[in-house]
């Protein structure tokens, strides 16, 4: 359980440390000294990506309290996009880059953070799969392995479906902490959980099978293991 808690806290802690500053409710870019960026440098590319993320956050917060929000989703989106375009222009002039470059960098994902969030959830899911695998092993011990296989397949599909919902919430929570806002708006669609649901589902099923097989092999009597091996040969 301590490892599970650590797996949950690590991405949130890093996200909190590396997140964008809290945005105001006005469509204004914070004062920043002009400085050209050299996009061949990793630090400058990271700076531009974070500026793009901050511009999006400010635009979303601004449109959340704008009068256009009461008029419906289309006027709300127009207010958000207009503010975002204005802020992208300020960032472009501040750092001597093209507006389209700023917009493109705002779409870039933080790969290291995404990998950490994915691995942390995989650790928690793996622990849960191990517990369920142990339950199946105790329910169908020894020569009841056909029933154990069927049960493992059924439970793995159900667990993967539930895990797909949980990992989406996990990623949304981590991203909210990283960006310093509880309203991700259109950015939810860019999360890796929304981009690769089939792959995540398949990987969850495979992880469950591996955890269940490990529990069976770790607890199988030596004689039974040898018998199964000789029967296969």
Walk me through the structure.
The chain has 233 residues and is mainly alpha-helical. It has 2 domains: 32-106, no CATH class; 111-232, no CATH class. 75% of the residues lie in helices and 0% in strands. It has 9 helices and no strands. The protein has helices spanning 2-18, 42-65, 73-95, 99-106, 111-139, 145-179, 192-195, 197-219, 222-232. Helix 2 (42-65) packs antiparallel against helix 3. The relative contact order is 0.12. Mean pLDDT is 85; it is low at 3-8, 14-23 and 222-233.
The gyration radius over C-alpha positions equals 24 Å
Number of helices: 9
Q: Could you describe the largest sheet, including whether it forms a barrel?
A: none
Q: Which of globular, elongated, flat, extended, rod-shaped describes the shape? A: elongated
Tell me the domain tally. 2
Structural class: mainly alpha
Q: Write down the overall mean pLDDT.
A: 85
Question: How much of the residues is beta strand, in percent?
Answer: under 5%
- Into which percent range does the helicity of residues fall? over 70%
User: What is the number of beta strands?
Assistant: 0
Provide the low-confidence segments as ranges.
Answer: 3-8, 14-23, 222-233
Query: Which H/E pattern describes the elements?
Result: HHHHHHHHH
Measured between the Cα atoms of the first and last residue, the distance is 40 Å
